[in-house]
Amino acid sequence: MAEATKSVSIEVVYRGIFQKTLAQRICRSVVLAGRKKGHTGTAFSRYGDSPERNGVPAKQFAIVAVDEIELEASMAKYEPSVVDITIAVDDTLVKGVESWAWYGRQPIWKPTREGGTVLVTSEKSADEVVAQMDKTPKALTVGIVPGGASFAGLWVYKDDHTDYRVLGALAKVAPEWLSLDAAKEAARELSNGDASAVASVQHGPDATLVRPVNAGEGTGNHGKPAFTKPGRTTMRPGNALA
Question: For residue 54, what pLDDT is reported?
Answer without folding.
Answer: 87
